[in-house]
Amino acid sequence: MTTDRTVAGSPAEFAAPGTSIVVDHVSRWYGNVVAVNDISFSLSAGVTGLLGPNGAGKTTLLHLISGLLRPSAGGVTVAGVPAWRHPAMYRHVGLVPEREAVHGYLTAREFVLLNARLQGVTDAEGATLRAIATVELQDAADRPINTYSKGMRQRAKVAGALVHDPAVLLLDEPFNGMDPRQRLHMMGLLRGMAAAGRTILFSSHILEEVERMADSVLVIHAGRLAASGDFRSIRRLMTDRPHTFTIRSSDDRRLAAALLADPAVFGAELGDGKLSVRTADFEGFGRALPRLARVAGISLFEITPTDESLESVFSYLVRR
Amino acid sequence: MITRMPLIAVTLRGVLGRRRTWLMILLASLPVLVALLIRAGGGQPNATTILDTLLIRTVMPLLALVFGTAALGSELEDGTAIYLMVKPIPRWHILLAKMAVAASLTIALVFPVTVLTGLITDGRDALSLAEILGYALVVSAGGAAYACAFVALSAFTGRALILGLGYVLLWEGVLSGLLEGTRFLSIRQASLGLAAQVTGNVTTPPALDLATSAAILVAVVAGAILLGSMRLSRFEIRGSDG
Amino acid sequence: MTEPTNTQPKLASSAGGSIYDLGYQGYQGRRLARRDVLLSLYGQTLRACYGIGRGARAKIVPFTLAGLALIPAIIAIGIAAIIAQAGPAGSRFDSISPIRYHTYASAIAVFVMLFCAAQAPELFGRDQRFGVLPLYFSRGLPRMDYAVARIGGLVGGLLVMVLVPQALLFIGRLLTAADPGTGWRLESPNLLPILLQGLLTVLLLGGIAAVIAAHTPRRAYATAAIIALFIVPPVIVELVTQTGRTGLGRYLVLLSPGDILEHTNGALFRTFADGPDVLGRDLPDVAYFVAVIAIIVLTFGLTIRRYRRIAV
Q: Which residues of B touch C230 (CB under 8 A)?
């Protein structure tokens, strides 16, 4: 399923065909264990969250996309170039791995500078300074990385991945170990980069992070792609699961009775000054409710869909 | 190679700068120390014997082994090699840079040690300056060949050190001495062959001739570069979960 | 939210909820003694020596080396069987067969040294590398016990590797002798020297490997250091003594594990008369035994001290 986002009004700096990630029926197995099972999607500019429980295959998928694993079947193309065995691709790709330690004896400045030089960045020192400023590591930049806290190490890795201004950024659990302030800062940074036209794919098993950051999600479970796209749209596609609305009105009881007469409504619950209504037909209910309320002479004060959170979407998807 | 300087620099920093470096210097200086010891005891150290048995057969392969496996293997083992892999650099460049570091460090130790040992020993079996320098070149070539081979081995397996040791001790030490026909599969024999050319010593069994010895060393280096590059270009990150 | 009728036994219950009894109990029974703990760690070390209990890859190196050490014994039995069939005329070959008890040690020396270099870092370095020493020391296991169990396991593993081939040789020669009585008479004097030499070998080499591995958590460097310490001194000794000035060589021998063992081997088997000319043989036999004991005590002591003082 192609998920394309066009960010309205932004200059398409990176709009050349080389910005996309195309994953084409990719599988990866280790003997009898299938880590990634026939996954296909394509991404362009924007932030995509790769969401799944631990062991779902997120890291394997990221390694496949970053050319660090050979696909057992299918292929990955990044920036127009196959990912496997094409080191030239890395000019446009920045990778922030989760587990791999950085050379502990280097300072952050030296590490970022090394990355800049290996990437062939023309003004390596300048780029290093900017990258370090971007992740706010200026104060600690001249201490060896093995003296850093976990969040600082993460930021050093991110700086190293950003220094060559890549069009594609892959991050594996990037907010691991960051305190809330650092996390907010990093989220803002990544969203800004996406707005400038970069393709950002990050993995997480923490729903709130993905909900806040991602324009769209890829839900992966046991190596398979369970869903992709904007999570609210996904929710609407889950027709066998009734939507729940919370309504405050001038007369909840009479409204409940009127609603229950409508075939689209499964159930209604009164309590706590609110009315909870369950319905299968999102669109139909949206039309029916105002009509019924008007006919019955009831004023509607507040209508809230109560289970459109990513959490409910996710729990539905992985329990199937 | 200028553009690969950062690669070489970070490899150098990773290999040196630790307790290990001092131990390697100590190990390398053993031939000199032994020669001094013998002279101090009033004896007449024989340069060729010392260099053949202590340096070519023992110290040189050990040094090359430690430097060779450290240059690439330690980074692969602790995971920091990733940051070098995800760069737009052809993998054989990376391999060559590692080999250059390992070989250079080995040569940097064995060359001066050979010259010093040669100068210290004198008397009946003393070597002329030309012979000493020739020997030093031979030892450098042999050490470089070992180093390149062990770097390539590290690309294939995490147990390169023990396998390399097994090769040096079991294959070169025991078997190829027993099986005459396999002598040309031994870097040690090639080095000894070249050394015999320099000193004109005649040994039994006769050492390999110049052409064969040189060919072996060249083949080892070329094979190491070829196989190592192929392996490195197919580098896959190890066991991920989730 | 209310559960259907749940028949699990309850620890506590009220109208609102229940806590269920899962059968967890405190243990009030007999607890094993310190000796049992030590023995179980020893057993685990012994198994780890040969990679038992871990994957197939861990078994490759130790089993290969132990197997290689066994091959000369198997060949020798084969030869002995053939000789026995040749009858009394064949007994001449027996005395010049290269594979005998007192030559066995030097034949497999290289394999034993490689075994030490490969396995000692596994036994001593892994716990330090992965930071699990606190798990050991916070139980009722004294630090010294840990060190003793580890060293004991290494020594035990080496003993197996060194003695099994000798045992095979012994049994083989017994079986191929003219009759069991003669066979026993001929071979049994060798039993004590075999045992003693085997013990000295494993204690010496194992102790050296242990002390290096305990101080060097990184596997590769421990391996390289152990091998260097085994193969470099004999070369130096040979070089120094070869020049004819035995003054220095005589004492240098005492620092070379391989040479020391050669001498104790010769002393125990009393084969110097007909055996190869061994270097530096100017010191009385007892000097070598003293050297062996001294090095063993030193290395064991340093290893135990290391674990006593290591900060976890």
A: none
